[in-house]
């Protein structure tokens, strides 16, 4: 058992490191795009790309998750004949759905460009998006195969290399050619999608021993879709909460504002990477402890992680909110920050980009807690609860976007997303209390809130005390405030050295 969970810990580390590096390259790639093309062109590309992301869901229909599950369970039990049939059936259905959706999108490109995007430059982008749908099916197939056979290094490298290739393709275009406009990022992504060709021989080798007669039964089909459809609904819900605002901004506002929002949202989400990795770890932890009926230990783990997530994430969120304008200036340029479209909220006029980033930064703690809880629900066998919560949050998200985006622009979208995160956090905590009798660590949370206020005040005071350049003042202010924050957190016992050293759970004790 200990060896099994040691393997899980190593796999988690590999995925976390690969994901962090991949996201770093992805973020640098956005920086290249914002300097190479106009905000309107940047916005048009990511608006079409968001449409592709939504259409990928019905093209996949949750079958990638089902394939991972079947490969994992059937290879362990050596049911080669049934596994061969499952792989062939799922691959065939995905390819059929992908071709139908991609073909329809390709055919409707002129209509969508004229009536939704209001820009003929969208036509080739939409046609590229239809190709993306087909290529992504091969990409997701390889991911399912590697995940099913627990080849986590291959999973990490697949995602990482795709981002690296996109980055260097964009860099070559930017530095060595005059290739610009909306097709520059589209072509860079197209090249990146062909990363699957590098890993295809390895996948074929893994599957080469699975040869049997094709036997497709109603029971098999029912089993596949009973797992795939809920997974598809969860994916749709997550995309609705996270990205439907991009489609609505495209409809209600200008492409320039779409471009600004597509720099703001990924910047804020950087802070959620910690929670994402912890969620990966907590899935097997919660499953193991729940199976042993060790609810007391599970509660202890969750409360500890709640406190640590709040303690770690809230100060960077404050920094991001306070320094939103210079942060966006440095990363993407003034067109996305201080010179972005002005928005008037309650008589106060301010650039829309920094304001939206400040609002979103405040919601990252909420979505981090929600993601952790969703992972726990899966571990204790209650994944349907996640679907219900996301369904409520997505519905509220759509309604508020329709109401707020026309009036407040991208700041309205940021408010809507943050409210959705709040709903997800509150509902998931309530359900966690019901299923595992979770006691929210209110005392520690209040300590973090008080320390965060002190951190904010000290940040402002130090920034006025120092009289160096702006950037040196900022660095010294953050360092001084952060040091005080860490010392007080230790004194108030919000965290301890043991907390950091003992984050790896002990599964050998009941």
Structure description:
83% of the residues lie in helices and 2% in strands. The protein has 510 residues and is mainly alpha-helical. A two-stranded antiparallel sheet has the order 1-2. Helix 11 (273-291) packs antiparallel against helix 12.
Secondary-structure map with pairings?
Layout: H1 2-36, H2 39-60, H3 63-77, H4 80-115, H5 122-148, H6 152-176, H7 183-193, H8 196-207, H9 218-252, H10 255-269, H11 273-291, H12 295-322, H13 324-332, E1 342-345, E2 348-351, H14 352-379, H15 383-408, H16 410-436, H17 442-465, H18 470-491, H19 497-501
Antiparallel strand pairs: 1-2
Helix pairs in contact: 1-6, 1-11, 2-4, 2-5, 2-9, 2-10, 3-4, 3-5, 3-9, 4-5, 5-6, 5-7, 5-8, 6-7, 9-15, 9-16, 10-14, 11-12, 11-14, 12-14, 12-17, 14-15, 14-16, 15-16, 17-18
| Major sheet description | 2 strands, antiparallel
Unreliable residue stretches: 1-5, 504-510
Q: Alpha-carbon distance between the termini?
A: 12 Å
Mean pLDDT: 84
Helix content bin:
over 70%
Spatial order of strands in the largest sheet: 1-2
Number of extended strands:
2
The helix tally amounts to 19
Encode the helix/strand succession as letters.
HHHHHHHHHHHHHEEHHHHHH
Radius of gyration, taken over Cα atoms and rounded to an integer in Å = 24 Å
Strand content: under 5%
> Which structural category do the helix and sheet elements fall into?
mainly alpha
What is the molecular shape? globular
């Amino acid at each position: 058992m200990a060896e099994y969970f040691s393997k899980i810990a190593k796999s988690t580390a590999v995925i976390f490191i690969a994901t962090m590096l991949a996201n770093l390259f992805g973020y640098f790639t956005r920086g290249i795009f914002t300097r190479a093309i106009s905000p309107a062109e940047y916005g048009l590309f990511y608006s079409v790309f968001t449409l592709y992301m939504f259409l990928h869901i019905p093209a996949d229909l949750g079958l990638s998750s089902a394939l991972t599950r079947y490969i994992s369970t059937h290879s362990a039990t050596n049911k080669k004949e049934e596994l061969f049939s499952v792989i062939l059936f799922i691959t065939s259905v995905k390819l059929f759905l992908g071709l139908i959706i991609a073909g329809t999108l390709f055919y409707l490109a002129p209509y969508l460009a004229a009536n939704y995007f209001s820009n003929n430059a969208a036509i080739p982008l939409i046609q590229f998006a239809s190709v993306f749908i087909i290529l992504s099916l091969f990409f997701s197939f390889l991911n399912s195969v590697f995940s099913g056979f627990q080849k986590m290094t291959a999973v990490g490298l697949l995602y990482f290399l795709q981002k690296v290739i996109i980055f260097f393709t964009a860099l070559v275009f930017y530095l060595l050619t005059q290739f610009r406009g909306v097709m520059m990022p589209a072509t860079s992504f197209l090249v990146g999608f062909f990363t699957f060709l590098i890993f295809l021989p390895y996948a074929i080798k893994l599957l080469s021993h699975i040869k049997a007669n094709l036997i497709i039964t109603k029971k098999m089909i029912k089993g596949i879709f009973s797992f795939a459809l809920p997974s598809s609904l969860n994916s749709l819900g997550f995309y609705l909460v996270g990205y439907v605002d991009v489609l609505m901004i495209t409809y209600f506002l200008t492409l320039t504002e779409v471009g600004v929002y597509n720099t703001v949202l990924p910047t804020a989400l950087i802070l959620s990477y910690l929670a994402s990795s912890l969620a990966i770890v907590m899935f097997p932890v919660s499953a193991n402890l729940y199976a042993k009926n060790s609810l007391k230990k599970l509660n202890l783990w969750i409360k500890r992680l709640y406190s640590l997530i709040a303690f770690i994430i809230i100060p960077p969120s404050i920094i991001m909110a306070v320094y939103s304008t210079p942060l966006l200036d440095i990363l993407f340029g003034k067109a996305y920050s201080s010179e972005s479209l002005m928005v008037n909220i309650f008589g106060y006029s301010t650039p829309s980009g920094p304001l939206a980033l400040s609002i979103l930064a405040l919601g990252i703690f909420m979505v981090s807690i929600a993601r952790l809880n969703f992972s726990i629900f899966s571990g204790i066998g209650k994944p349907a609860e996640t679907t219900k919560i996301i369904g409520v949050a997505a519905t509220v998200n759509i309604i508020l976007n329709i109401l707020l985006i026309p009036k407040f622009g991208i700041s309205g979208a940021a408010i809507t997303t943050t409210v959705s995160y709040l709903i997800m956090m509150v509902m998931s905590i309530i359900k966690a209390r019901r299923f595992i009798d979770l006691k929210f660590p209110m005392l520690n949370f209040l300590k973090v809130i008080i320390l965060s206020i002190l951190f904010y005040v000290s940040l402002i005071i130090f920034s006025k005390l120092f009289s160096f350049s702006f950037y040196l003042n900022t660095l010294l202010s953050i360092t001084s405030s952060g040091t005080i924050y860490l010392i007080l957190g230790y004194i108030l016992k919000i965290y301890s050295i043991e907390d950091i050293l003992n984050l790896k759970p002990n599964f050998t004790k009941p």
